[in-house]
Amino acid sequence: MAKVTLQNQAYRMILERIIRHEFKPGEPMRESKLAAALGISVTPVREALHQLEREGWLETFPCRGAFLRKITPREIEEFRIMRETLELACVDAFLKHAEDEDCEALRRNIAESEALLEELRSAPPSPDEMDMRWRFIDSAFHQLIISGTHSARLIAEAEKWSMQIQVYMQSQHDERTCEERLDSKSQVLRQHQAILLALEMARKEQGIWVEAARTLVRAHLPGAGRFDGTSEGNSGKGRRKSHGKRA
Can you tell me the distance from the alpha carbon of 88 to that of 27, in angstroms, rounded to the nearest whole number? Predict the structure, then answer.
C-alpha cells in the first residue's frame, strides 16, 4: 500500500475515534501506541497527527508530544460564523455549477429525512440517539449544497468545521423532551424542503427565485447558533442548555 494511502488511512481511523469520543480532551496521542492499535507503522501515524494538528484537533508541546484539544464554545461560534458565510456564498456557486445529480441528491436527502422522522415518531429511540441520527442527515443536507459547488476546497473546509462542531455538540446536554425535539426536527425538514424548491426553481427561471433561495438559506442558518452544526436551533421550542459534559 502506498505511503500516502497509509497516511490517509491513519488519519481517518484516528479521526473516527476522536468523533466517537474514544479519546478525551487532554489525552496524549502517542505515536507508538496509536500505530500498534491501528496495525500500521509509526511514520504514517506521525504524518496523520501532523495533519490533525493543522486542522485544530490536536495541540503539540515541546518534549511532551501531541494532545487532543478541547474545542471551546468560542471556537464553535467562530466555526458557525465561517460556516454561515461560506454556505450563503455557496448558494450562488451552487446555482452556477450544480448539475441535475446534485439536486437529485438533495431530493434523496429530503426523502430519507421524511422516512427517518416517521421512524423516530413511531418508535422513538433514546433522546441522544435520536439527535445523533438526525444530526447526521441534517448536516448532510447542508454538505450536499456545498458539494454542489464542485469546489474541492470549499467541500473540505466545510467537512472539517462540521465534524468539529458535531464533536462539541455531542458533549452538550439537552433538556428538551422527545416531543419537543421531534417538533423541532419536523420544522427543519419543512425548511429544507423550501430551500430545495427555491434552488430548483432558481436553476430553471433565475429571477426572484435566486433571491428567494438566498433569503431562505439566510433565515435557516442562524439556528446554528446552538453550535450543533445543523439548523435545528432556530426551529422549534426548547433551547439547548449547556451544563458541561455528561456525567
Answer: 36
The reported pLDDT for the residue numbered 42 is 94
In 10 A of CB 45, how many CB atoms? 27
Average pLDDT of the residues in 131-147: 88
Phi, psi of 6 (to 5 degrees): -65, -40
pLDDT at 10 exceeding the cut of 80: yes
Backbone torsions φ then ψ of 207, nearest 5 degrees? 55, -135
Contact between 40 and 148 under an 8 Å Cβ cutoff? The reply is: no
- For residues 94 and 173, the answer to whether their CB atoms sit within 8 Å is no
Query: What is the Rg, in whole angstroms, of the alpha carbon atoms belonging to the chain?
Result: 19
Contact 135, 142 (CB under 8 A): no
Report the pLDDT value the prediction gives residue 236, as an integer from 0 to 100: 47
Concatenate the DSSP letters of all residues of 141-195 into one string. Answer: HHHHHHHTTT-HHHHHHHHHHHHHHHHHHTTS-----HHHHHHHHHHHHHHHHHH
Between vectors from CA 16 to CA 1 and to CA 90, what angle results, nearest 5°?
100
For residue 228, count other CB atoms closer than 10 A to its CB.
25
Please enumerate in sequence order all residues whose Cβ is within 8 A of that of 46, keeping only pairs 6 or more positions apart, or say none: 31
Count of alpha carbons within 13 angstroms of residue 132, beta-carbon side: 13
Instruction: Give the pLDDT mean for 164-182.
Output: 75
Domains belonging to the chain, first-starting first, are 3-68 (1.10.10.10), 73-234 (1.20.120)
List pLDDT tens digits, range 82-92: 878 888 889 99
